[in-house]
Design a protein that fits this description.
Layout lengths: L1 H11 L7 E5 L4 H12 L3 E6 L2 H9 L7 E6 L5 H15 L4 E4 L15 H29 L4 E5 L21 H21 L5 E7 L6 H7 L3 H4 L6 H11 L10 E4 L7
Parallel strand pairs: 1-2, 1-4, 2-3, 4-5, 5-6, 6-7
Length: about 270
């Protein structure tokens, strides 16, 4: 059964061959895995990242693949960077067909902690405003070219549930769950706007639990020994979820996909 499913996804991914994908936060574990799978499927992937070296390392590891990977240096919290990046992509490849909003940050500050203003703004500007800026530019490109596009928002289980802190221990949530709850709402708002704009563009939210090497797992495991022993997904599991979401029939839209590792107890 797994082999059949993999073959089915590979066959359906042919519709994306030669199309252009933008992946934000591509230098991270999840973003890197998603970029790799899209390139293997024959897509032209424009990886938006502040850390060019990690994307270049990923590109060097890709041999005999149908697509190609480009690193586009971009800070998605800076509107000028976002406009420049999407302008370059349009001028070079004609436009965007798939956007994966994967970039995100998490900080250690409490909401009530003094001198936390910078951390609060950083979380909201990256996880919410940056996502919206990239979505705006991608939708503009898709709408102008009247393509069957797709927007994937990499959300989190913390966009649906706030982790309960153990009494007497320092809470690990901070602004992060609020920013991910916002992504849940934004996904629905975008869906409604895409209908209003009479587009052929889908939008999906993918909410993974803990993932090996991602910002949440790394952040929480440093301050909570229990997290180190919790079951985790692999970045490739999230990448496969993205492939599943973008290969449904034209009349089917995966609106929200929650994926958890077996035995998760968050």
């Amino acid at each position: 059964m797994p082999e059949f499913s993999a073959m089915n996804i590979a066959e359906r991914m042919k519709r994306w061959e030669g199309k252009v994908a933008v992946v934000t936060g591509a230098s991270g574990a999840i973003g890197g895995a998603i970029s790799k799978e899209l390139v293997k499927a024959g897509m032209i992937v424009c990886a938006l990242a502040r850390r060019r070296d990690k994307v270049e390392k990923l590109r060097a590891s890709l041999f005999d693949v149908a697509g190609n990977l480009n690193c586009v240096e971009c800070d998605i919290t800076e509107e000028s960077d976002v406009k420049h990046a999407f302008g370059w992509i349009e001028g070079t490849y004609g436009g965007v067909d798939l956007l994966v909003n994967n970039a995100g940050v998490i900080t250690k500050c409490l909401l009530t902690e003094k001198n936390n203003t910078k951390d609060l703004y950083t979380t909201m500007e990256t996880n919410i405003i940056g996502l919206c800026l990239c979505t705006r530019e991608a939708v503009k490109s898709m709408k102008e070219r009247d393509v069957y596009g797709h927007i994937i928002n990499i959300n989190s289980i913390f966009g649906h549930k706030v982790h309960q802190a153990v009494p007497g221990t320092r809470p690990l949530n901070g602004m992060y769950p609020a920013s991910k709850y916002a992504v849940t709402a934004i996904t629905e708002c975008i869906r409604q706007e895409l209908i209003y704009l009479d587009t052929q563009v889908k939008v999906s939210s993918i909410s993974p639990g803990l993932v090996e090497g991602d910002i949440v797992a790394n952040h929480t495991s440093n301050d909570n020994d229990i997290v180190k022993y919790m079951p985790k997904l692999k970045p490739e599991d999230v990448a496969e979820a993205v492939l599943y979401a973008i290969t449904t029939p034209d009349n089917v839209q995966i609106h929200e996909l929650v994926i958890k590792p077996m035995g998760e107890f968050l």
